[in-house]
Amino acid sequence: MKILNFGSLNCDYVYSVHHMVEAGETLASSKMETFPGGKGLNQSIALARAGAPVSHAGLLGEDGDFLLDIASSSGVDCSLIERVDGRTGHAIIQLDRTGQNCILLYGGSNRRITEEYIERVLTHFGPGDLLLMQNEINLPERIVELAHEKGLVIALNPSPCDDAILSIDLNKVSFLILNEVEGAMLSGEPDLEKAPDVLLQKYPHMKIVLTLGKEGAVYMDKDTRCHHPIFPVETVDTTGAGDTFTGYFLTSMLENMPAEEGLKLASAASAIAVSRMGAASSIPTRKEVEDFLKERT
Ligand code: RIB
Q1: Which residues' Cβ are closer than 6 Å to ligand 1?
Q2: What is the mean pLDDT of residues 16-35?
Q3: Are 109 and 89 in contact (CB under 8 A)?
Q4: In this structure, what CATH number is given to the domain that contains residue 187?
Q5: Number of folded domains in the chain?
């Protein structure tokens, strides 16, 4: 089975601040650093570092060569990534002293996906292959439709959650990895606690992972339900932790690990990621995650 991750690539400009800037406020930052990021790229790197064979599809502008470098050196197949005129997508990230962030996205090349490009990419994949998607590129609903027509199994991380996500036919999605707010939006159920059950009633074929921040993560399908707490660590930067979790959890599913073991693996990987700076560059290798688990158990 081949894995296609169709997603964004971003230059992350990270500004260290005392607190998040407020409306009308002008705030000095103490540091600015540039890191590789984008939910798509982060998740491809997490898959590859977890040991899964992944091809990334997405568009880079005239800049952003360092995004290709980190993807290839992590083991991601980058042969389907194409270049367009103009700037690569970027994110302006405020990072406060507790490690929490606020992210402002500029789509750039990530919003230049065309139907022709989607078709070109999909010629390399067929029935039983896996498509992973997030929501930082344009035409997400077309990618899901065309991939489903070709018999690909679809995994969706509906993040960031906005109206574009509502245009995706969730009947076509087999794996849904999301947080509580995304769960409430997709289910239409305002009670965050009830949202995942509503989703599972509507889509009983789905395997759902709900991340709960400090409360850990829950897995549910029609037969199973399990929870794993977080591994407490000193938080340096939470950026990319969710992407690390997604890549590692999907890898565990593809390796047929029991869901509880998959949650443990993914929780350990994201604990390591939050203890380091940056998004893509904070994602641990499988060996680092296994060593971390040996120390903790
Ligand atoms: O999920 C973290 C990512 O969100 C960052 O790397 C940033 O690029 C934004 O896309």
Answers
A1: 10, 12, 37-39, 42, 91, 103, 136, 239-240, 242-243, 279
A2: 97
A3: yes
A4: 3.40.1190.20
A5: 1
Q: Whose CA is nearest to atom 8 of ligand 1?
A: 38
Contacts of 293 (CB under 8 A, 6+ apart): 264, 265, 268
CA 9 – CA 89 distance, rounded (Å):
6
CB proximity list for 13: less than 8 A, separation 6 or greater? 32, 33, 34, 90, 91, 92, 93
Phi first, then psi, for residue 141 (nearest 5°) are: -70, -35
| Pair 154, 203: CB distance under 8 Å | no
Positive or negative CA dihedral for 25, 31, 33, 39?
A: negative
Average pLDDT of the residues in 10-24: 97
The whole domain housing 152 covers: 3-295
The pTM of this model reads 0.97
Tokens for 147, please give them: 């991939």
Question: Atom 7 of ligand 1 has which residue's CA nearest to it?
Answer: 38
pLDDT tens per residue, range 211-257: 999 999 999 999 999 999 999 999 999 999 999 999 999 999 999 99
Q: Residue 158 has which token pair?
A: 């509906």
Least Cα distance to 41 among 166, 148, 170, 132 occurs for: 132
Q: Beta-carbon neighbour count of residue 52 at 10 Å?
A: 25
42 and 56 Cβ atoms separated by less than 8 Å: no
Q: Which residues are CB-neighbours of 288 under 8 A, at least 6 positions away?
A: 272
Task: Determine the pLDDT at residue 193.
Answer: 80
